[in-house]
Amino acid sequence: MCVNYITVSRQICFDWFRTPIEEDQDWRENDIYKDRKAPFIIHDDQGQRKALVGSYGFVPQRHRPLKKLTKEEQEKFDRAVQRAMEMGKPLPKPKRIRMDTMNARAEEVGSKLNYKRFWLAQQLCIVPALNVFEPNWETGAHERWAIELGSKEPIGLPGMWRTWQEEDGSITNAFTHFTLNADHHPLLRRFHRPGEEKRGVAILRREHYDDWLGSKNPEFARALIELLPAEELSSFAAPKEESSHEEVDDSGDTESPVFKQVSLF
Q1: What is the DSSP-derived secondary structure letter of residue 204?
Q2: Which of 15, 58, 149, 226 can pair with 101 through a Cys bridge, CB separation 3.0 to 4.6 Å?
């Protein structure tokens, strides 16, 4: 499962994906993790490509179900609320369950509660990236590896998006992208912990971008979700930089030798 990737700049989105990103569509980082904002591409009502910005993960943290607390946990939370009220501080927010929805299993997307409605409606998108990161355990320890196209061209990840209504009445976006079983893939089976199912990130072929975005048929779209052959991919160790302050295991940054991203904007 991919939990981290490098997004593209506005210039690359325009040059490669033929999609301008409007000035009011803003995000802060190019190193994308769960719940961080990043651009994704859809078709507008006229069938033209349009860029939006949303949270990486179909169900953002603030919308996940509340965690069921034990008696002791509830008492501790109640005390924290009482202290905050007495001190005039913001009230602590209740804990929510852990949900990783950055990736959707393509084999199950038509049956899973979080995804089914949007898959049947074909609310599809493309997630533009320079590379994705996966954990390699071949040495017996976790090593962060980058996967990219052998051509060094940007990647279009087949994805799906939805909107959320926030407490203040505003509407925000969220997105996920698809993975497939990679147990027998010569390259992608090298990643993830020993004994776990190997999952690989699906990548769209460039000539299929508009077919994907314009799909109205789930079975047609499913046929476009594929793992590229190993000979079309490149992978390499990409340890996170010492200066990184990320708390997520798979973090760091790389840049493509061809599509060098000097500035996010």
Answers
A1: -
A2: 58
Beta bridge partners of 237: 145
Angstrom CA distances, 31 to 39, 162, 205, 252, 261, stand at: 12, 22, 23, 7, 12
All residues at 6 or more sequence positions from 62 whose CB lies less than 8 Å from its CB, including other chains:
96, 166
d(CA 29, CA 95): 26
Say whether 3 sits in a helix, a strand or coil.
coil
Other beta carbons within 10 angstroms of residue 98's beta carbon come to: 8
Q: Is 204:212 a contact under the CB 8 Å cutoff?
A: yes
- What does the alpha-carbon distance between residue 85 and residue 240 come to, in Å, rounded to a whole number? 41
- The residues near 139 (Cβ < 8 Å, ≥ 6 apart) are none
What contacts 224, CB < 8 A, 6 or more positions away? 158, 204, 208, 211, 212, 215
Classify burial at 238, counting beta carbons within 10 Å of its beta carbon; exposed 0-12, middle 13-18, buried 19 or more: buried
Flag whether pLDDT at 246 surpasses 70.
no
How buried is residue 222: exposed, middle or buried, by Cβ count under 10 Å (0-12/13-18/19+)? middle
**Do 5 and 131 touch, CB atoms closer than 8 A?**
yes
Calculated CA dihedral for residues 64, 65, 70, 74, nearest 10 degrees: 80
Convert the pLDDT of each residue in 176-201 to its tens digit.
999 999 999 999 999 988 888 999 99
Most confident of 76-90, 223-237, 247-261: 223-237
Q: Which residues contact 38 (CB under 8 A, 6 or more apart)?
A: 7, 27, 32, 53, 54, 56, 127
Q: Rounded to an integer, what is the distance from CA 9 to the centroid of its chain?
A: 16
